[in-house]
Amino acid sequence: MAEVKSDIEIARAASMKPITEIGGRLDISSDNLIPFGHTKAKVSLDYINSLKDKDDGKLILVTAINPTPAGEGKTTTTVGLGDGLNRIGKKAAICLREPSLGPCFGMKGGAAGGGYAQVVPMEDINLHFTGDFHAITSAHNLLSAMIDNHIYWGNGQDIDQRRVTWRRVLDMNDRALRQIVCSLGGVANGFPREAGFDITVASEIMAILCLASDLDDLQKRLGDIIIGYRRDRTAVYCRDIKADGAMTVLLKEALQPNLVQTLENNPAFIHGGPFANIAHGCNSVIATKAALKLADYVVTEAGFGADLGAEKFFNIKCRKAGLQPKAVVIVATIRALKMNGGVKREDLGAENVEALKKGCVNLGRHIENIKKFGVPAVVAINHFITDTDAEVAAVQEYVETQGSEAILCQHWEKGSDGTIDLANRVVEIVDSDMAQFAPLYSDDMPLFEKIKTVATMIYRADDVAADTKIRNQLKDWEEAGYGNLPVCMAKTQYSFSTDPNLRGAPTGHTVPVREVRLSAGAGFIVAITGEIMTMPGLPRVPSAEAIRLNEEGLIEGLF
Predict the structure, then answer these.
(1) Whole domain around residue 58: which residue ranges?
(2) Are residues 275 and 242 in the same domain?
(3) Judgement on whether residues 124 and 46 belong to the same structural domain of the protein
(4) Catalytic status, residue 384
(5) pLDDT tens digits along 405-429
(6) Nearest CA to 435 among 534, 329, 537, 324?
(7) What is the CATH number of the domain that holds 31?
(8) The last residue of a domain, from among 199, 218, 251
(9) What is the DSSP letter of 132?
(10) Of the listed 105, 166, 197, 304, which one is catalytic?
(11) Is residue 191 annotated as part of the catalytic site, yes or no?
């Protein structure tokens, strides 16, 4: 049996083309690219603004079943489909999120695809890339510093130190920083107070950058951030302490989308990366809209399973940006479906059609949910070498009973050769213009009813539990003019319920809302359910232990 190369070995052997040549495939001249070396570049905002009168291409969303340790391969399938579309002669681009350093050195690994369906340069993309995350971290912490400085020098806005809501961020998993006490050490260091750190991808600034339409919109959104409250409970905004201008300066370059390439030298925009279970989990609006002006077909992804990623893509991103998706690809693996059917991880390599059929209910529910948004869906079976013909046939038969179809995809092993069937079918669906997209709820629905709509229609909960304090907070925000905002549900990615151990398609559960937060700059209300960490910790054996430089100075251990 031939040796299976690691993702990083495959990526290192790639024959990359100059980024100017990749830009040329989308008719972007070298004058409109800001190169970062030879293989990655930013696209200038001035050039993107010049495209506004061009017709849009057609938007395709790639989502997935609920994630399991067995893996689903959503990013890999997004890359594979983009390559497949180009392979059959279509002008296609892909849009992805940027990876966070926290998961890279923690447990999840990188987010550049895998096998022969990757974006490159893989090491750069998974590490510092073009510095966007560092810029977001710096802008966020500049605001933190200015809040404490404002309080130190007389507190002209009368900020109640007990009600400062703005935390600090770091793009690393560090549980020790979740809760801290800052400004210790005497009078010269300010007024001691309790604070904490979130991971950068959970920052409201990350969400703002990914939803902003241009620099002016970016600064307005930054100014709208609520940093805390006065003693009379009125909100204090970022613009009140005059931080929004300097923050915009720090983010000026970061707002420009990044252009790279796939292993098959097809164009890929990678820009932004908000958490999918605390924020909206999609790449930037600017990158998606630019790609739609430059390509005939655009393939993008949304984080985690369709109950989180696709729901937020439709209800938040598409609503805010005026996007009209034409098709959805739901990624599933035989292994993950068997795990949903109760098979232990160590037994996933053995054929088990009965457990597979039992686990297919998770896939079926996602298919039903996507249809509620009026967008046609097709299933991509991300192939593993342990999959048997009987198991593949069982999934295809099940999906057919759900009014859809499942197509076997072998892009990890074969690149675009393995997604030709999927690409052809997606083009048929998209070009037939079957989609009649509409968000799940209207802008004017009360905030609590929006939360309940998502919980009952997408999670299939019987009810939502929220105490009087939370319901009153939502009503206060409605009276303050925020009632038209969409809701961003913070929930475990592993289950339709708030219990990560409930696999399959659970029913009869209640969604407990333990906290709500107003992200006034990003433009949504966050409803926190269950135990959601905004600063993850490292696992017992973090990936960082295996990452090193070899004797040739090359990076080993990234995946």
Answers:
(1) 7-130+256-328+406-422
(2) no
(3) yes
(4) yes
(5) 999 999 999 999 999 999 999 999 9
(6) 324
(7) 3.40.50.300
(8) 251
(9) H
(10) 304
(11) no
